[in-house]
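User: For my dataset I need records formatted as: sequence, then structure tokens, nothing else. Please produce one.
Assistant:
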Amino acid sequence: MGNRISNTNKDCMFEIDSINKISGIQDIRIIDCKGKKVYLVGEIHTREGSCKPCEDGALPEDTVAVNDYLKIITESFHKKGKTFDMFLENDYVYKTSKKHNLDQQSDAPSWEQDINGMRAYVQNFRVNHPRSTVRFHYVDVRDFLGGLPSFVPGLWDANAITNILNHMLENFDVDHKGFRRNFVDMLDQMYIKPLLNFITKSGLRHGNIVHKQAIKSSLFPDEIAKLQDTFHDLFDSYLKQKKNYLEYNEKEIKQYLREANVEHVKLEEQAPPGEDPYSPEEIEEGRKLVYKFNTVAPLADTISLLWANIHDLYTVFRMFKPYTSCCLFYGGSAHTRSISKMLKLLGGEVEFFIEAPSTSSSCVTLSADKAQTCTRGRASGG
């Protein structure tokens, strides 16, 4: 396919011949589903392993930062007067401000901006072009629905909740059944109870924003039920991981870590350069701590997936409004994989798929035939 990102729908096509690499993303999919074209652009939020810059720090001529790539697409559809809907993994807001947004990321080079760097651009585009055929949707409804920051065992300073829970694991006897029961009950109260306020085994509760988008979509009731079943499958997995943790079923826990490729904590036996070597006692203490974190990792991971699933259900329901035809979602790769599975459940077919060479890379090459050119860096779109 060379460096052409296109599909068979002429009203939903963009080709940028000068671009060979996109920096900051991990994968791109194009899916044809029920008469709609859906582009899924996934990233690692840390932008780890982005495309290699030139000596002056700028990107090569044939490489574009993902934020600039999305802006080019936006301007292209706007100028053509073609309908285009972009869905961004940004926090949901009920009403859109009519004032310009002077976000601090706006002045940073585009390759240094994260996904939130798009928010100022989107806001300003809406203000400057109120009648544009390009529409933007913020679809991360987790905070709006009462979701808390994810618990990541063993990762310090991710968020305050993670720090508190990691501190508890580090300082309490996790082999004590009473502690494990109390710990799980606490996770239930913090993460699961809010979920069950708007979705249960029988489906979405009426009145919340996810249910409202479902009934406003062009999907049939049986199709909505199929999508809701993805949540129910994850909830069954949560109950299983909860049981494994309470019973310390190490075989099942290790199997989950392998199959799900969860980024579990690894023991560092070598001290950092310049520090005294770790003693055997310190290494043994480290092993115990790694064990504590990894035994709860499948449970924490499944809880995060449950909340991510709500984000993805909401996104797909919004994509299938009667007035949409050409859609692009930009967010984490875990979401693009999940949304892709949902679209396949609805009969969607993948027309195009390309990904970075590894899970720790954020540089997608559209054509392997072209060499990187650094004669002149590509200017930032801001």
